[in-house]
């Protein structure tokens, strides 16, 4: 699902929620349903998108109010006079599906490219303003501050064939099966129209789409490629639903033909899904999935051609080298985080940012220059990617000579639902990490006070135990009297053997390593044990 924009920005992109509804401007990159989910309940004026995206959306949701939309077309720039920060937005072709665009936002907040879903090619990228493009290995004259990048296939290491090559493979596959009197094309997804157009042209035949059984698909194709549609069921080419139960339905079609002594139909699926994920019926095994230059038949009898509307990892890396942005986040979750990309690992390090860098504001993180502490203000803000390992570890933040941070006291916010490495080893959910970050900063003095009280009340074993449990679960840093900092997540001296079995079980149930408690608290526990022994 698409992610929310940082709180400091006055616009949302592809998100329709209570939070995004509160933004003053809304942008829709394209009409795929995962990008318009919630639009019926959380839409508000104005929604900027291309005219085609608007028409496709109204085809899907006829009850949507047409007057909510404002048009922006490829190559068009619109100046938006927002009361807080005026900005300009420009639309660029995303090479994804009909009507799909990327948005470039430029304003006081910096420059942000939001790719939506995209298949980045040199043609797409060289349409962006020249100042943002590297030349001959030299960084752009002006760097993009932030790229929200479609990382759907960011883990896909094999080079994906270009769309034209994939379409040719579909045509070749059909040529090789002249006996197939019916050809089923699983091209029911917005963005697969070019396949149908090419097949229609190559074989001189229109394609049957059942208007009654599939009115939404017919409506969409009628908007994008009306010239290739027919209601004549005798056409050799039929559109076949790709979802759900494609393989079972395909097997039934083939079995029917055999049972009736008819030629087997040809079923072709042009998608990257099978290559990236579908394990069932992969049959020809992983070997088949490594063939990207020809159609491959699976166990159920479906022929696959790798056709991708998203960029491969190779294409993403190349695009990032060309754009050299300062920060990158994935537009979708949870498929792949931007931190998994080599460019981001090497170049997008928060430790390189000075405290005054405007990017902190964009990242929704407050940096306090006085005491070099950093507070995560965006409790549920899903805008920041996994931070480099060097920023995690529970050490005190230190400031280098040039004023940049070498360590942060806590991890930065991650996408909702993802696990996060907090203070080196403890793995908690995002909400937990924010709770702890907030507490670390705001309640630090209160905690220190509590420790002092606990020391004075050393006879109260229960209180001490609670203190150990609470401070250790939080993975927080507590200041000792002499000012030295001790981390309860493992940096402290002491052994986890001192903890009771129940407490250890508790940690394990939380998927948190059993910590070593603070030395001062161990001392308190030891004293208590000694006194108890003496009593007996
Ligand atoms: Zn899409």
TrEMBL record:
Which segments of the protein form a coiled coil according to its record? none
Q: Does the keyword Transcription regulation apply?
A: no
Mark out the compositionally biased spans (Low complexity).
487-498
The superkingdom of the source organism is: Eukaryota
Q: Name one GO cellular component term.
A: nucleus
Keyword set includes Ribonucleoprotein: no
- Which keywords are on file for this protein? DNA damage, DNA repair, Nucleus
Chain ranges of the DNA repair metallo-beta-lactamase domain? 227-334
Principal place of residence: nucleus
Renumbered residue ranges of the record's region Disordered: 472-500
Q: Name one GO biological process term.
A: double-strand break repair via nonhomologous end joining
Q: Which GO terms describe its molecular function?
A: 5'-3' DNA exonuclease activity; damaged DNA binding
Where does it localize?
Nucleus
Q: Which SUPFAM superfamilies does the annotation name?
A: Metallo-hydrolase/oxidoreductase
Protein family according to the UniProt entry:
Belongs to the DNA repair metallo-beta-lactamase (DRMBL) family.
> What protein does this entry describe?
DNA repair metallo-beta-lactamase domain-containing protein
Where does this protein come from, organism-wise?
Answer: Linum tenue
